[in-house]
């Protein structure tokens, strides 16, 4: 028997490689539903516009390690914990000694998009689909990106840079709804508009128009938006079908300990499909850095007598959006207090979210200085003092004003 990794994304590969490094006598097999594995999903927008070659997508191009095997194009369809076996889509049954579940999820297709597909409609998730989208885009230049996720924003920006006419339709709220406050999102939205991207916010999908077998328009928010290409970036849904009946799911979710261990000591989970139980709350960041960190730790913990705890529970993500730098330190939380500084004319907003005086998240947009220090303050889990909060302030000022809230209009005064 060997260690089996379900999923060939970054979490799965990190788990496999760290297991081989930590436990060199253990054989590891990666099973992935895609035909190809070991590539950067985050670079698919650049690949579709031709700024990144297909060869540059891949971070793994095979191995001479006789104890590391990759089996692609196979889906895991069942799990038998009692006999420690997995059922595969080709009818095969394989045994495992240890198991890591890191299969990620499937792209969401909301409303009418889940029906019979028309030409020119693509999800932004896998390389096979990205190849088809790239070929289609060569002769179809009016693009609508449906969804305000990070991959949707990046795709819209790269397409616009390549000269495409781009419209973004966001179903509810604002872009990056789970990552940014509405005020921070406004800064990014203004930047997109300055690039020439049309934004339609809080516009739920109502209808689609297919003519001659291809997409020509969608109706959202009471308006029709014409397009000849529709790229769907409405998020993902974790693929947990093969876990049904296994006893591992709680309320439909795969909950793990802070050591990434399920209730079965032989089974660990990492990445988009895992929900970490921290006692009083649950944590599922769904970021690329977290997937890497969790995969690495899961692989190291597989055979450990005392598995190590995953300590970095931040949702930090850093990116550059065509001249606009951004660091996401953690998502907004209902009821949190906000301290912030902004220069709207320069597309700058810097904010922290506080609960009980403790920073739990925030965002740095346009000016990402002190990002590492602010992340460390969040990780420390204690109240911050005015001197630390001054990391947000501009050099020429000594006041950071709270966002006005009912019953509180007092600014945070900082020492010189």
Structural class: alpha/beta
Between the first and last Cα atoms, what is the distance in angstroms? Answer: 64 Å
Share of helical residues: 10-25%
Largest sheet data = 7 strands, mixed
How many distinct beta strands? 28
The radius of gyration over CA amounts to 23 Å
Low-confidence stretches: 397-416
Calculate the mean pLDDT score and round it.
89
Please indicate the percent range of residues in DSSP E strands (runs of 2 or more): 25-35%
Total of DSSP H or I helical runs spanning 4+ residues: 9
The gross shape turns out to be globular
What report would you give on this structure?
- The termini are far apart.
- This protein is 21% helix and 31% strand.
- Helix 1 (10-22) runs parallel beside helix 7.
- A hairpin with a 2-residue loop joins strand 13 (214-220) and strand 14 (223-226).
- The protein is globular and about 60 Å long.
- Strands 1, 2, 3, 4, 5, 6 and 19 form a 7-stranded mixed sheet that branches.
- Residues 397-416 have low confidence and may be disordered.
- The chain has helices at 10-22, 44-49, 54-57, 127-137, 150-161, 182-195, 288-301, 371-380, 386-389, and strands spanning 2-6, 28-32, 68-72, 76-80, 85-88, 93-101, 105-107, 121-123, 142-146, 165-169, 198-200, 205-211, 214-220, 223-226, 229-232, 236-238, 249-250, 253-256, 267-269, 274-277, 282-283, 317-321, 324-330, 337-343, 348-355, 358-365, 399-400, 412-413.
- The chain has 416 residues and is of the alpha/beta class.
């Amino acid at each position: 028997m060997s260690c089996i990794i379900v999923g060939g994304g970054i979490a799965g590969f990190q788990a496999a490689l760290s297991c081989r490094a930590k436990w060199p006598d253990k054989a590891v097999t990666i099973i992935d539903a895609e035909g190809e594995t070991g590539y950067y999903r985050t670079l698919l927008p650049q690949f579709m516009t031709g700024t990144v070659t297909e060869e540059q997508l891949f971070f793994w191009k095979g191995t001479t390690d006789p104890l590391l095997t990759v089996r692609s194009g196979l889906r895991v369809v069942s799990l038998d914990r009692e006999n420690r076996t997995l059922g595969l889509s080709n009818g095969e049954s394989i045994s495992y000694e240890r198991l890591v579940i890191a299969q990620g999820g499937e792209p969401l297709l909301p409303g009418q998009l889940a029906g019979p597909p028309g030409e020119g409609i693509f999800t932004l998730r896998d390389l096979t689909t990205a190849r088809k989208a790239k070929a289609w885009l060569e002769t179809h230049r009016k693009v609508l990106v449906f969804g305000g996720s990070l991959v949707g924003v990046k795709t819209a920006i790269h397409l616009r840079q390549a000269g495409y006419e781009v419209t973004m339709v966001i179903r509810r709220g604002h872009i990056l709804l789970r990552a940014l406050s509405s005020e921070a999102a406004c800064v990014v939205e203004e930047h997109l508009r300055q690039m020439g991207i049309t934004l339609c916010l809080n516009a739920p999908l109502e209808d689609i128009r297919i003519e001659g077998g291809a997409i020509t328009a969608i109706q959202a928010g009471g308006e029709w938006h014409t397009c000849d290409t529709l790229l769907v970036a409405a998020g993902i849904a974790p693929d947990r079908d093969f876990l049904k009946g296994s006893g591992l799911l709680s309320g439909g979710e795969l909950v793990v300990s802070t050591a990434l261990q399920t209730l079965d000591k032989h089974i660990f989970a990492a990445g988009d499909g895992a929900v970490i139980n921290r006692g009083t709350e649950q944590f599922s960041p769904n970021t690329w850095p977290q997937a890497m960190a969790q995969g690495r730790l899961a692989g190291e913990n597989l055979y450990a007598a005392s598995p190590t705890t995953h300590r970095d529970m931040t949702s930090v993500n850093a990116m550059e959006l065509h001249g606009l730098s951004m660091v996401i330190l953690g998502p907004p939380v209902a009821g949190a207090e906000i301290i912030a500084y902004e220069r709207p004319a320069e597309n700058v907003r810097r904010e922290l979210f506080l609960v009980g005086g403790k920073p739990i998240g925030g965002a740095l947009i346009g000016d990402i200085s002190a990002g590492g220090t602010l992340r460390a303050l969040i990780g420390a889990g204690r109240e911050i003092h005015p001197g630390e909060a001054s990391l947000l302030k501009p050099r020429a000022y000594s006041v950071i004003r709270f966002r006005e809230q009912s019953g509180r209009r007092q600014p945070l005064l900082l020492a010189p």
